[in-house]
Design goal:
alpha/beta; about 50% helix; Rossmann fold; about 160 residues; globular; single chain
């Protein structure tokens, strides 16, 4: 299962317009209908805020939105504690929604598709970790790739 972050679907929407890449978007819609591509509700709300036309397309193509539940909330709190984030002092790293998105991917044992920047040098302060760095932590272990890597791994040819 592929769990999409808002950053990755917005990246795809902005850089691979449906009118110019219809086969890509037909394939994406098919993947959504099969339940292979899903999105946490919190990520969908971010998409709807930033790119309403993209959110409408996702809605029209029956994207499954994964709701928050106690397991996800508890996992997000566990990760937050691992990072040493106290209260609402998230700093330059992941935010609250990011933790919910990572926790959702972990709870469904999915691969997270996120276009949040890869940190070539891991910050000393864990509260500065971005999504890919948090996912790579031994105590988190969520596979995280960006949209282009997701397409490459699919081995689908859109010609």
């Amino acid at each position: 299962m592929q769990v999409f972050d808002a950053s990755s679907i917005i990246y795809a929407w902005d850089n691979y317009p449906e009118a110019q890449f219809p086969k890509l978007w037909h394939w994406m819609a098919d993947q959504m209908s099969q339940g292979n591509i899903v999105m946490p509700e919190v990520a969908f709300k971010e998409v709807a805020h930033v790119a309403p036309d993209c959110a409408n397309w996702l809605d029209a193509n029956n994207l499954a939105q994964l709701p928050m539940n106690d397991q996800i909330i508890q996992e997000a709190i566990r990760i937050k504690n691992l990072l040493g984030i106290v209260g609402d002092k998230y700093g330059a790293g992941v935010g609250e929604n990011d933790l919910f998105i990572i926790a959702t991917a972990r709870s469904v044992r999915g691969r997270l598709i996120s276009n949040e920047g890869f940190q070539a040098v891991t910050p000393l302060a864990m509260h500065k970790y971005k999504i890919p760095t948090v996912c790579a932590m031994k105590a988190v272990k969520v596979t995280c790739v960006n949209f282009v890597e997701f397409i490459k791994h699919s081995k689908v040819v859109f010609g």
